[in-house]
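Narrative of activities, Objective 1.

The group set out to show that a structural description can be obtained from nothing but a protein's sequence at a throughput compatible with the screening campaign. Below is one input-output pair from the validation batch, recorded exactly as produced.
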Amino acid sequence: MSREQYEALNLVRKLRNEAAHERFEFRFQDKGVTALIQKLGTYEFAKISNIFRLPQDGEIPDMKRDFITWGLALFVDLEQTNADWIERLLEKRKQNRQFTGEFTTKDMPKLS
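Output recorded for this entry:
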């Protein structure tokens, strides 16, 4: 997992906590919520969010649409990271015919 992915997941966690613990109504238009969502859009993975086509007819508020598309982009980015990690582990297994079937923390990718 990259540092960017880690930070983005922390932003999603903060938004989730905000929604879950709001005493009144959770609103995507609130300044604190808007700031967290806009920060998600600054990450590299957000550039692929245009592949997700959500209606732009005003039915979904802009901040909510941004949160959904950037969240989906983060999910796709994490899925690719996981696929790459699994591929590297399988390649390592091929190279080491005496592989025991167990991985250690040394096999895990570092935060970049």
